[in-house]
Structure formats: structure tokens, C-alpha cells
């Protein structure tokens, strides 16, 4: 039976309502936790990641005894207390040096985890270039097909997207796009592209991680030059850069994953925009605009009524002698017409 927390006063009631599920969730808050043993490289790497995540980042200054893959009670307590849905746990041991564990939460419980090893790290200070403004959401670029086929890289891609870009944006201003984070893979071994057909339990073994390619994360600032109508984009390295290797992982429980991926019922206006059930001859393009298709019969353009303009009428000189025979008939008709019709004409 679930424990129901009742509010004692109006202030606690507002706090509980703010943590209730919403149709559009707030940006994810990440907590950076250092374990008992962390090296200099790992401390600098966590500091640089926190600078990219700000202002939605919380850092624990004290070292804690945390083993995410063995006991998750501490993480669940901190998640409920700080209203955070992600953790970055840093721990360096003899067997697994310079390890970073990304933990994703759902409803105060651990959803899934992914551990990576920091093989190489280059700080921002070594790049003497312009930096992006803190708080701006980056563009994400994944340059490998394995991010859509391999289970391990699909999970890593989902983790990075939730870590860097969990906020929902209604519009994008060109001046607000300042940097891009590119995620690439090292050369892929032969036969790894068929990993999508392999069972998930067979792929997630520890011995299989040795054959997986390394992950290269690079950050660039975006420069726009408007010499022509279309702006020219220039990318400048700003740091930090990471070379990561995949290690342990914990997959989400199927029932919890089903609840986490459940979407609220769409409103009528969202259905009309094309977000709901697909309608006939209606589709949404890549920019999110609703486009419709009309099927019409064959039209007879000879009977098409065009707009009459004085500039399109033939002049008296162009009429020429072809109309000389008709002038006499027109003069006789004008004499027979009443005077009121002559004035209207």
C-alpha cells in the first residue's frame, strides 16, 4: 500500500502540488555526487558537466559512500528531498577508474542507470575561444547509426538527451542558439551493426562492453555570418571534450518504463494540430506545420472568370479597320436607345 502524504498547512500543500505530475514537466534537475574515492580528472570532468547543466544542477560538496548498482536508498532519499530526477555519481576504483554513473529517476525511484569511464578529458580552459552563455539549451548531434539500433547506445542517447535537453521549447530564436554538443563513435567493429537482432540480456553483459566503440563528446560554439540571405554557420571548439567507454548498466523495469512513457490525453486543439490520431490527407512536416491535401476534379479554364482591367482593353487605334463595318450598326442602335440608357453607357 502506498503511503499518502497529507499537507498540514497551505505552504506544504503548494509544495506537494508543485511536485505532482504535469502535462509539460519542468526541466530535469541533476545532482552531482562524489563518492569516497575520486581523482583529479574525475573531479574536473564533473565540474565541467555541471557548468553545462547550470542552472539546473546541484553539487554535493561532501563525499558520500554510494554504490548505485548495489543500494539505491540514498539516491531515492535525495531525489525526494531535492525534487531531482537525475544523478551523476563519480567514483574511481582500481577495477573501474574514473567512472561516471548517470542515474535516471521516476516517481522517486531509480528507473535505469548507465556507467561510463572517462578515458580522456580536455577542459574548457585549454580552449582559448569564446564560451556559450550558461543556461542556454544546446543543440544535440548524434553521428552514428548505432544510436538508433544498438540497445546500449540507445540508452546512452536517451540519457544524454534528458541530461542536456529536457526542457520543452515552444519556439527557437536564432540568437539563443549558441552551442552544439556532438556525440560520435569510434570506428565500429565488424558485425556490431547486427546488434539490434540480438537479445537485450545478451548485449548487456560486462564482457561485451570491451568490444563496443568509444564515445567522443565534443562541444562547439555557433557563429552566424549574414553575408547572404542564408546565414553561414561556423563551429568553433569551446570544450569540454570527453572520450568515454561504456561499462555497467541497469535496464528499467518493464512496468515502470511503461508508466514513465505514458502520455496524457491530448486536447482537442492538439489533435487538430496533428499531434493525435492521424487523419486522412493530413500530415505534419518536419517543422511541425500541419499540411492538408485536396483532390479536385478536372477544371475547364476556358470558362474561368478573370478580373477585368482597363489596361487590358484594346485601344481605339488597335481596333483599326476591322470594326469599321460594325460602327454603322452601333450608331443606329444608339439612336434607337432611350436617353436614360445613353447616359448610363
UniProtKB/TrEMBL annotation:
Source domain of life: Eukaryota
InterPro entries reported for this sequence: Brix, Rpf2
GO cellular component: nucleolus
Domain Brix, chain residue ranges per copy: 28-255
Main localization (coarse): nucleus
Biased composition (Basic and acidic residues): 288-301
Taxonomic lineage of the native organism: Eukaryota, Fungi, Dikarya, Basidiomycota, Agaricomycotina
Transmembrane residue ranges: none
GO molecular function: rRNA binding
Cellular compartment(s): Nucleus, Nucleolus
UniProt-annotated stretches for the region Disordered: 1-22, 254-345
Keywords per UniProt: Nucleus
Biological process per Gene Ontology, one example term: maturation of LSU-rRNA from tricistronic rRNA transcript (SSU-rRNA, 5.8S rRNA, LSU-rRNA)
The name this protein goes by in its record: Ribosome production factor 2 homolog
Positions with biased composition (Acidic residues): 319-337
Listed Basic residues bias regions: 1-13
Family label: Belongs to the RPF2 family.
Amino acid at each position: 500500500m502506498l503511503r499518502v502524504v497529507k499537507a498540514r498547512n497551505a505552504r506544504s500543500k503548494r509544495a506537494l502540488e508543485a511536485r505532482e505530475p504535469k502535462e509539460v514537466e519542468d526541466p530535469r534537475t541533476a545532482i552531482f555526487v562524489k563518492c569516497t574515492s575520486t581523482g583529479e580528472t574525475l573531479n574536473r570532468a564533473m565540474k565541467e558537466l555541471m557548468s553545462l547543466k547550470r542552472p539546473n544542477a546541484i553539487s554535493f560538496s561532501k563525499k558520500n559512500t554510494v554504490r548505485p548498482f548495489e543500494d539505491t536508498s540514498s539516491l531515492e532519499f535525495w531525489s525526494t528531498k531535492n525534487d531531482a530526477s537525475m544523478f551523476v555519481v563519480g567514483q574511481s576504483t582500481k577495477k573501474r577508474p574514473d567512472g561516471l554513473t548517470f542515474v535516471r529517476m521516476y516517481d522517486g525511484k531509480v528507473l535505469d542507470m548507465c556507467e561510463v569511464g572517462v578515458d580522456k578529458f580536455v577542459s574548457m580552459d585549454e580552449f582559448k575561444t569564446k564560451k556559450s552563455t550558461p543556461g542556454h539549451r544546446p543543440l544535440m548531434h548524434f553521428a552514428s547509426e548505432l544510436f538508433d539500433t544498438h540497445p546500449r547506445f540507445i540508452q546512452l542517447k536517451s540519457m544524454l538527451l534528458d541530461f542536456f535537453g529536457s526542457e520543452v521549447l515552444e519556439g527557437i530564436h536564432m540568437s539563443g542558439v549558441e552551442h552544439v554538443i556532438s556525440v560520435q563513435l569510434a570506428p565500429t567493429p565488424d558485425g556490431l551493426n547486427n546488434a539490434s537482432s540480438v537479445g537485450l540480456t545478451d548485449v548487456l553483459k560486462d564482457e561485451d562492453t570491451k568490444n563496443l566503440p568509444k564515445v567522443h563528446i565534443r562541444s562547439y560554439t555557433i557563429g552566424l555570418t549574414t553575408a547572404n540571405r542564408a546565414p553561414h554557420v561556423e563551429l568553433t571548439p569551446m570544450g569540454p571534450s570527453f572520450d568515454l567507454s561504456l561499462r555497467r548498466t541497469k535496464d528499467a523495469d518493464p512496468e515502470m518504463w511503461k508508466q514513465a512513457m505514458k502520455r496524457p490525453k491530448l486536447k482537442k486543439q492538439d489533435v487538430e494540430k496533428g499531434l493525435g490520431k492521424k487523419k486522412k490527407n493530413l500530415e505534419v512536416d518536419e517543422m511541425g506545420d500541419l499540411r492538408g491535401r485536396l483532390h479536385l476534379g478536372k477544371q475547364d479554364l476556358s470558362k474561368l472568370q478573370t478580373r477585368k482591367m482597363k489596361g487590358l482593353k484594346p485601344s481605339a487605334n488597335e481596333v483599326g479597320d476591322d470594326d469599321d463595318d460594325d460602327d454603322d450598326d452601333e450608331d443606329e442602335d444608339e439612336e434607337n436607345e432611350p436617353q436614360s440608357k445613353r447616359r448610363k453607357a
